[in-house]
Design goal:
Layout: H1 11-35, H2 38-55, H3 57-71, H4 77-99, H5 103-111, E1 113-116, H6 118-126, E2 131-135, H7 141-150, E3 155-159, H8 165-177, E4 181-184, H9 189-197, E5 201-205, E6 214-218, E7 221-225, H10 228-236, E8 239-248, E9 251-256, H11 268-289
Parallel strand pairs: 1-9, 2-5, 2-8, 3-4, 3-5
Antiparallel strand pairs: 6-7, 8-9
Helix pairs in contact: 1-8, 2-4, 3-4, 10-11
Length: 311
């Protein structure tokens, strides 16, 4: 007897099944990563990431097309594919670090981080108008936020809910254990403004393509992205800084930018577009330096997506 949908796999059912697999993998693998030596974790993760490039054609296609957008038309296809493949390996290592992001492991990770631009953070904090950090899916954003929290600063991260809910609870509990405060993506804007009024830190990952938002030029192509970070900065008068932390061998390098100037054209719509563009100009410079640590497995630019493939 054929299934009611004619034999096709329902997307919602697929998401639920995948989520359950991720949940149990998390439950089983997390204790092992904290027990095993780091070099062994990285060796195993590298093999898994190398294989995942071939096992997930949709993610591979998105990563290769996105890397073509980053490297430009002068890049050879072989080079594009090689760097996209390295991105899978680095992402697997990032997952190891995320699973180890508690207690003694966090202290060990912080000892291997070199931070530049700390003075920019202190200057923005002392201005007393609230503080927003923006970053991208590059390097290890969880570690960057956890380091700030570990130094005694209240950090609120905006997290996209995961499915199923108990996997989401597991991941968010790990962030809470690292000293982070978690605000679900899509929460009421007043919640974010309250955080800024209380002089706490808001941390956003801004490179999430979506159909509704603000159009920006990113690596010479147009895409649509959320404007929440820029809108909050303009509405609250908070300082907004870019920050990232990337792998250098088995060590980490972190950088905090100076406060990104807010435009003052007198037109709220133009100010929002200009500040969002300024944030992506900063992020583009970062990704150009570390393209194999940009973990973007969604289609970033509509024009690079195959014509016969739905968004």
């Amino acid at each position: 007897m054929a299934p009611p949908n004619g034999g096709r796999i329902d997307l919602e059912d697929c998401i639920i099944v995948c989520g359950m697999i991720y949940y149990w993998l998390h439950r089983l693998v997390a204790p092992v990563t904290r027990w095993a030596p780091l070099w062994l974790n990285y060796a195993i993760a590298s093999m898994i990431g190398w294989c995942a490039f071939f096992l997930f054609p949709d993610k591979r296609g998105n990563a290769v097309r996105n890397m073509a957008g980053v490297l430009g038309v002068e890049a050879e296809p072989k080079q594009i594919r090689h760097i996209a493949h390295r991105g899978f390996v680095n992402y697997a290592k990032y997952l190891v670090d995320m699973l180890r992001l508690t207690g003694r492991s966090l202290e060990d990770l912080e000892r291997r981080v070199v931070v530049t631009g700390w003075e920019h953070f202190l200057e923005a904090r002392d201005a007393g108008a609230g503080l927003i950090f923006v970053g991208g899916h590059i390097g290890n954003s969880d570690l960057a936020a956890a380091i700030l929290a570990g130094r005694g600063f209240p950090v609120n991260v905006i997290a996209e809910p995961l499915h199923p809910p108990r996997w989401n609870a597991l991941v968010q509990a790990a962030r809470l254990a690292a000293g982070l405060k978690v605000i679900p993506l899509g929460s009421n804007a007043m919640r974010f403004l309250r955080v800024l009024r209380e002089k706490e830190i808001l941390a956003f990952l801004i490179d999430r393509p979506e159909e509704e938002g603000v159009s920006v030029r990113f690596f010479g192509r147009t895409t649509t992205v959320p404007a929440g970070a820029a809108a909050l900065a303009l509405r609250s008068n908070a300082r907004i800084l870019g920050a990232y932390i990337v792998r250098s061998g088995n060590e980490w390098v972190a950088h905090i930018s100076p406060a990104i100037p807010r435009p003052e054209t007198g037109d709220p719509g133009r100010d929002l577009e200009a500040l969002t563009q300024a944030l992506f100009d900063w992020l583009e410079r970062v990704i150009r330096q570390y393209p194999d640590q940009w973990f973007m497995f969604r289609p970033m630019w509509p024009e690079l997506q195959p014509a016969n493939e739905p968004p």
